[in-house]
Specification:
mainly alpha; 4 helices; about 0% strand
Amino acid sequence: MHPVTGEYDYLSQMVPHHEDAITAARQLQRSGRPEMRRLGQSIVTTQTAEVGRMKGWLEQWYRQSPAPSPSGTTMPDLSGLSGDQLDKAFLQHMIPHHMMAIMMSQQLLMHGEAQHAEVAGFARKVRDDQWAEVRTMRQYLTRWFGAQNLPCVPNMPGMPDMTPGPHMSGMPGMPPGPHSETP
């Protein structure tokens, strides 16, 4: 991930980033855990719709700019994995993958780079929805595989503390309310 330098840059990076997540999340149809199958389906459904929206905005507002192109995947090929290996690998890689989208969205918002209100609202939704999913995925990873398997996730200004500890147990999702968009 490189710094987001504007709305077009955000959208053109986010399209292949979402497509990467969709490809990995489809593999969870094979998971033995219903929670993982639901998580995978939710990511596929949500992010497929978001890719369509972003491509529409790129076509509408940035027709003269180059189309988004994959810049290398951050998710491993999960097709050869099954059972616990599939679930653990997905969680260990999707948490940092989501964190990249959260950071890109927060960067766009903090620097006031969104040119359209729709994109600013979209970036807030991506940030907040994926933060809630990160919390859920961290709970699954800890419950099923132990806290030693958690990937490093930095704390971010305006976001709840993500360090492992008793405060992380039983948290259903990020609480509603405003989140910091300025440093």
